[in-house]
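Lecture 7 notes: from sequence to structure.
We start with the chain below.
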Amino acid sequence: MGMEEPNEVSRRPGGRSARIRTAVLEAALGLLETGVTSSSLPELAAHAGVAPSSIYRRWGTWENVVADALLASSEAAIPVSDTGHVRQDLIEFATSLAKYLESPRGYALTRAASSVGADSPGVAEARGRFWAERFQVAEAIITRGIDRNELPATADAALIIETIIAPLHFRRLVTHHDVAHGLVARIDLVLKGAQTT
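Predicted structure tokens for the same chain:
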């Protein structure tokens, strides 16, 4: 009995589904970067080089594709470290976010995320899902800090993360100032405040 040919999945890590997802998300990110705020799924499929049915089956709407694309892009660019110290974890997280916001892709996507279809319930739901998932990942930093007794058990993880990241978005999208300016001082101020809650 001879050796069998490797099947389709073993020849291509991730297989067809992973390739389609990558192609669609890259196409969506590319469109967002060029200022496109809405696309029909057949148009997106043409940009991605996939069948429209693949997009309809997996995502259903442009808004769902955008939410998935933003999550995938930010997860890759903004990792959540575990250095063993809450302060250092927050500095690394915020520094990664600042670099992402300063990059052409990060800026375009953040701008798009804040303005794409602002009046659309579908976009509002996708945006809410995006932020909920990103906050859940980042809040692990605060949970670890509580577990290590670096922060009190009453520390509000969502409030701490929001207080640290909101100024970064404000500086990039509104004032167009250096995003990282004052980052460590802000983190120290927030951590000091968290000790008194």
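Points to note: The radius of gyration is 20 Å. Confidence is low (pLDDT under 50) at residues 1-12.
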